Amino acid sequence: MDQIANPAPGFQRNPGKVITVEPYRGTVTVRSGETVVASSTKAKVLTESPYPSVFYIPFADIDFDQLRKTEFSTHCPYKGAASYWSVLPAAEAGKDAMWAYERPFDEMVEIRDHGAFYPNKVTIEAKPA
Prior knowledge:
Elements: H1 9-13, E1 19-23, E2 26-32, E3 35-40, E4 44-48, E5 54-58, E6 67-76, E7 80-87, E8 98-100, E9 114-117, E10 123-128
Antiparallel strand pairs: 1-4, 2-3, 2-10, 4-5, 5-9, 6-7, 7-8, 8-9
């Protein structure tokens, strides 16, 4: 087994915790009003009980011209430090609407270079293939 260089302290303390990351078979589109902020056929679904499942969209499928990185950050003992972006077309309602783990812990490397959006700040539409 490979040596883990950046292990998640949460999993070390709570080895029974389960977080799954699976490909979403279909298209995920994120909009602010009529503006498409992201659209992808390569999104991933992260499931972490007791929270609702979250779509993570590859950075390549996100229109960063519609976003502005903010100073806000949070920390998850399982995933790492999260950076945030505001969705510009949503004005104040879009503040810190997208987050990403730019350097996640080793166990969550599958979500590196992917962003997730708060469904109460933008419209997220998932169409199965």
